[in-house]
Amino acid sequence: MSIFIQGTVASNGYALAEAMIYRGIEFELQAHEIKNTPTELHRLDEAIATSIQQVTALRNQTLESLGSQEADIFEAHIYLLQDPEFIGAIKNLIETQHVHAEFCVSKVTLQYMQLFEGMIDDYMKQRGSDLRDIGQRIIANLRKEPYGLTSLLQIPIILVARELSPSDTIRLDLRHVKGFITEEGGQTSHSAIMARSRGIPAVVGLSNLLENIHEGDLLLLDGVAGTVMINPTYEEQNDFEQRVRDFENERVGLMELKNMSSTTSDKHSIELAANISGLADLPSVIEQGAEGIGLFRTEFLFMNRTSLPDEEEQFEVYRQVAERMTGRPIIIRTFDIGGDKQLDYLDLPYEDNPFLGYRAIRISLDRPELFKTQLRAILRASHYGNIRIMYPMIATVEEVRLANQMCAEVKQDLIQQGIPFHPQIEVGIMIEIPAAALLANQLAKEVDFFSLGTNDLIQYMMACDRMNPHVSNLYQPFHPSILTIIKQVIEAAHQSGKWVGVCGEMASDPLAAQLLIGMGIDELSMNASQILPIRRMIRTTSFTQLQQIVKTSLSYATSDEVKAHLHAEFAKLQKNVN
User: Dihedral sign, CA of 504, 425, 415, 412?
Assistant: First the structure.
């Protein structure tokens, strides 16, 4: 007789396969006395250093394969591995209790997890799983054991676990892992975010999962209804297969929008573009019907290597992107190095607060030989397609003028050398610093377009590091101050006849995207996988109605009030469509 369990949808999709149980590393709850405290502290330091190296590699891998939103998950892990309060508490326990490091890591991690799990906000509750991941990794490195999923799979399986970490989820072998189910976790857990990005069906929050499922059981995972059936009957399997066909039809329906315009029901057009980190992203960009590339993060050409890419190497990459996009616009952001993207071979100075320090355009303007080399490569590639240039981290008009002066000098050199380029290439800036947002009316006179980097803009506006668990609850995209300043930037640009895009996470959030469209945004750029769902939303939405919703939304005082209003209004719109 089959067993039916109800959980929470983490990632849409269906899977039918045998169960494989994964238990991971257990915390050590028994303390063992040590005699040499300095040796134990040294063991801990080595394990932490190894953990940072491993997580940095995962961050870079995720950045290249999935994008910045998913990579930021591992950036938060690096932050905690370097957090003096968290690591200090572990060391203090070793020094005062004279017990082995594995126990101290376990105890402090569990204490921090309890702190998060006791919070009211569901997003913050789910950060406990990140702490578990970090603690288990340190313990594995203390034991000199491999961490995470290492099994070589030969058959299709559904992974069953008490909880999956982001580290586990990014390493899942999609040739064999058809889905996963866990006892713990929620829609906002980082493993759920990873699952959605990788297209892995997942259901979480399934009570008593490991008591009901055994290795080799046949599982039917319904990642739409949020259910799991254990050892289904033939009839239940047949019914499931029909649901799978319906789901595939839905996907086919989305694909029919691939070549359609992103136009509202009352004929207002939005450009939907994709964010990329390199050539590997292009197939999905083209497959999902992107109307352009709204953000090419060129810094990834500079990472995971021992020396700078020269002009020819950069030119070849930019040229290939231009040719493969066949005339569609491509915004190439000059390298955003610094902050969370350090390059050993550049010998950048140590900074207490690198996110507010020597990074992005500040490095470019200070090291013109690096900047001009990149500008030459971009300009040369512009001869082969519709390329635009964008400067990151702009705070002042002077920075834009100096960058444009260097660009003009490079153009003059190319003319003298008889090297072709697009002479009227558009140049824009990222609006991600409040100073730039407030000076938008002046900056609009210096450039051809703006792109709102909402991720950083929100952090700087709210004075909160979204990777810091103590203040990440202040990262509020729907805060009235954020919405007000975004609207002001859009209006300032339009008054000068310039267009504005968004390349932060707000672009791919249906709720935020509708609000941005109502404000008059011209372009939304996102992970390629989100383009068709957002296009469908746009085609069933009235621009006039969205404008009215924006007016009332800006009258509220808190983020929660704004979101409640938006949910209610957009539910009415959807009801009218249906």
Answer: negative
Which pLDDT tens digit goes with each residue over 257-283? 999 999 999 999 999 999 988 887 888
**Which domain-ending residue is among 215, 234, 253?**
234
Domain tally, the chain = 3
176 catalytic? Reply is no
Which of 77, 100, 104, 190 is catalytic? The answer is: 190
**Residue 248 domain-assigned (yes or no):** no
Task: Show the domain range for 53.
Answer: 37-142
Of the residues 77, 268, 407, 503, only one is catalytic, namely: 503
State the helix-helix crossing angle for 480-495 and 510-519, rounded to 10 degrees: 40
CATH number of 340's domain: 3.20.20.60
Q: Is the dihedral of CA 368, 423, 331, 457 positive or negative?
A: positive
Identify whether the C-beta of residue 212 lies closer than 8 Å to the C-beta of residue 230.
yes
Same domain, 138 and 157: no
Name the amino acid, one letter, at 315. Answer: F
- Told to judge if 190 belongs to the known catalytic residues of this protein, a careful annotator would answer yes
CB-side neighbour CA atoms (13 Å) of 535: 26
The candidate with the shortest Cα–Cα distance to 161, out of 80, 228, 224, is 228
Residue 81 lies in a domain: yes
Cα(391)–Cα(336) distance, rounded to whole angstroms?
9
According to the model, what pLDDT value does residue 376 have?
A: 98
The rounded distance, in Å, linking the Cα atoms of 255 and 183 is 34
* pLDDT reading at 321 higher than 90: yes
CA 427 – CA 439 distance, rounded (Å): 17
Cβ neighbours of residue 351 under 8 Å, at least 6 residues apart? 357, 358
CATH of the domain at 207: 3.50.30.10
